[in-house]
Structures are given as C-alpha cells and as structure tokens.
Write a structure and sequence with these properties.
heterodimer; A: 115 residues; mainly beta; four-stranded antiparallel beta sheet; 11 strands; globular; B: 113 residues; five-stranded antiparallel beta sheet
Chain lengths: 115, 113
C-alpha cells in the first residue's frame, strides 16, 4: 500500500504480558515516529528514528518501552510487563526526511487494551 | 503542564458558515505550527501549517492565523462543509525537534447540513 501500515489494528492483552506493535512506513521515508494517543488526549511523542538509529527517545515513558528499526524501514514498538495505563492507540508516522516542519504521514494506529 | 492548549472540546457550525478553531501555546521556542484533521478509526492527516515568521497562511478554504505576541493561532474554514466534521488537532514543533510534535487535545467539529 501507499500509506503507513500498522499491525495489529487491535490488540487485547492481560496485565503483565509482552506486546509488539509493528509499523511499515511509506517506502523511501527515512524518518519514523511513534506517538501514543490516550482517550481524550492528543497524540504524545514517544520516539523518533532517523534510519536505523533512535535520534530522540525522550518520550518513552519508562524502560518497559523499547523500539527498534534494524534495517531502516519497518519498526517494532515493544512493551514489556504491560500495565492497564498502557492502554491507548499507538500511532506510527513517517516522513521523507527529518522534518522540523512537522508534516508527518500517520498510520491508522494500533489500539492496545490491557485488561 | 500543557504547552499546546485547545480549550474548546467541541464546536458545532452550520454548513456554509465559518468554522473558527482556536489554539494557545506557551513555549516561545516553537517555530512551526500545524493543524491535523482526524476522522474516527483513522490516523491524523496533515491539513495546513504556518511558520513562526508568518502571520497568515491560506490554502483553499483553510486559513491559519498566528498571533505570536498572544501566543495564539486559529484555523478558519470557509465555507464549512459536512465532510469537514472531524477532530482537529493543533500541534507545534520547535528548537530543532525534528518531528517531536506537541499536540493539543483536539476540538471536535460538527458541521450540520
């Protein structure tokens, strides 16, 4: 497809379990971003990749959250020992180059529910 | 502490009229401001942006105004159409953050036929 693809679209898990969320950016986009949107809130920045490396991970809430992008394309957001407060829509976005202007292309998101 | 604030959670407008969505910010280091539009079950889509060195940017029915002294921006939609009904997010970037956008909580716009 032409857009940012995220899988799964919905994930229900139990407290304490491990979860992986996948993002396939637009082909050729070197910059990839993860955001989290909780109910009634705007998207909240988590981490930004330029190529394979995490250029800014200042938004990751704690060490249970980790993200990788080993080949500079697909990225996986990993959440260990999930908590109910992790329930949110996790949004991935990409851009052709790192953009200070903020014009990002978002996927439809992965809705995570932790019971 | 919220750096980008959208104080109106919802707005209802009649088709054909003007919709005005407001946004306030606190960080004077922001150098780009953006509006994103979001339909249910979809990701946000970029709508329009403005650099901090400008006070107005227009794109078709959409105009964004920036008042730096008041740390306030607004999005005007004229004329409003039912298809404009969505949640609108104000966002800001700055200080070389390279895409670390700070979003407001959003305003849900309903355009009634």
């Amino acid at each position: 497809g032409a857009g940012v693809s995220q899988t799964p679209s919905n994930k229900v898990t139990e407290k304490g379990k491990y979860v992986e969320l996948r993002c396939d950016p637009i082909s050729g986009h070197t910059a990839l971003y993860w955001y989290r949107q909780s109910l009634g809130q705007g998207p909240e920045f988590l981490i930004y990749f330029q190529g394979t490396g995490a250029a800014d991970d200042s938004g990751l809430p704690n060490d249970r959250f980790f993200a990788v992008r080993p080949e500079g394309s697909v990225s996986t957001l990993k959440i260990q020992r999930t908590e109910r407060g992790d329930s949110a829509v996790y949004l991935c976005a990409s851009s052709l180059t790192p953009t200070g202007t903020g014009e990002l292309f978002f996927g439809e998101g992965s809705r995570l529910t932790v019971l | 502490d919220q750096q980008v604030k959208q104080n109106s959670p919802s707005l209802s407008v009649q088709e054909g009229r003007i919709s005005i969505l407001n946004c306030d910010y606190t960080n004077s280091m922001f150098d780009y401001f953006l509006w994103y539009k979001k339909y249910p079950a979809e990701g946000p889509t970029f709508l329009i942006s403005i650099s901090s060195i400008k006070d107005k940017n227009e794109d078709g029915r959409f105009t964004v105004f920036l008042n730096k002294s008041a740390k306030h921006l607004s999005l005007h939609i004229v004329p409003s159409q039912p298809g404009d009904s969505a949640v609108y997010f104000c966002a800001a970037s700055g200080g070389g953050s390279q895409g670390n956008l700070i979003f407001g909580k959003g305003t849900k716009l309903s355009v009634k036929p």
